[in-house]
Every structure is written in C-alpha cells, then in structure tokens.
Design brief:
The protein is built from four helices and five strands. By secondary structure, the chain is of the alpha+beta class. The longest helix has 14 residues, at 99-112.
C-alpha cells in the first residue's frame, strides 16, 4: 500500500497525506493477495476526485477477537447512501464501478464464510470508511 500511495504522491504531491497504523499483533498474519489495493485505489481516485490538495487517507489494522479488521478511511467526497446500499445489494444489477468492492467481499466470504467481508460507511462531503474483516491466520 505504501508503495502505491508514494507513486500517487509523485503524480499529485499536494493532493493527500496518509498514515498507516498497524497493530504489532497482526504484522505477521497472512492476508489474501490484492485485497486492499482496490480499496485504497478507490479512495485516491474516486474519493479525492475534484480536490487539488489537503485530503487525508488513514489505513488501520487491528485484531478484534479472532478477526483481523483493516479500515481504509478518507476525508474525500463520500458516497451517497443509495450508492452505498447498491454496492452489495444482490437484487441490483452489477454496476461496473462497484465491481471491486463486491469482488473483495465475495472472495472473503467464499474463503472464510459470511461472518467476514467488507462494510462501507460514508457521508457525502465528509468521506468514506471501508472495513475489511477476515479471520486471524498465521
């Protein structure tokens, strides 16, 4: 993630700052490949669209019981409530721009079960927080 963010900052050095806070007790745990990249990319590309500077992205990882929680938060545009609901609504047709989040959730659920996955909390004009949960695996 750090490499991706640094590349983005070369392209737009004033657009955002970032912090990554990962708890020591999860640093050696396994994570599925390419699980977080699309979420971080969405924050930078979609969340910060229309801004020229001063945004912030925070990635946090922690253990909650036997689950690992990784949150990616931005203070960008946010997502309207109707769009948030449609991301994971099985009754709606797949909207191409939501494919990444839906794909991540399905990958997690297929491998670990429906008690894990992805949640999205967003307020238009204030930002978005995506939380990814999966079991602690050494």
């Amino acid at each position: 993630m750090r490499d991706y963010l640094e590349i983005q900052l070369i392209k737009a050095p004033q657009l955002f700052t970032y912090t990554i806070t990962i708890a020591e007790d999860i640093l050696d745990l396994k994570i599925m490949k390419m699980l977080l990249q699309p979420i971080v990319e969405n924050a930078v590309i979609h969340g910060f669209t229309g801004y020229k500077e001063g945004r912030h992205l925070h990635i946090e990882g922690q253990l909650a019981g036997s689950a690992v929680l990784i949150s990616i938060s931005d203070d960008g545009r946010g997502i309207p409530e109707q769009a948030v609901q449609s991301i994971f609504n099985e009754g709606t047709s797949m909207i191409p721009r939501h494919f990444g989040l839906r794909n991540i959730r399905e990958r997690i659920r297929l491998k670990y079960g429906s008690s894990f996955g992805v949640t999205v909390k967003s307020v238009p004009g204030q930002g978005t927080k995506v939380i990814v949960s999966f079991p602690k695996i050494l």
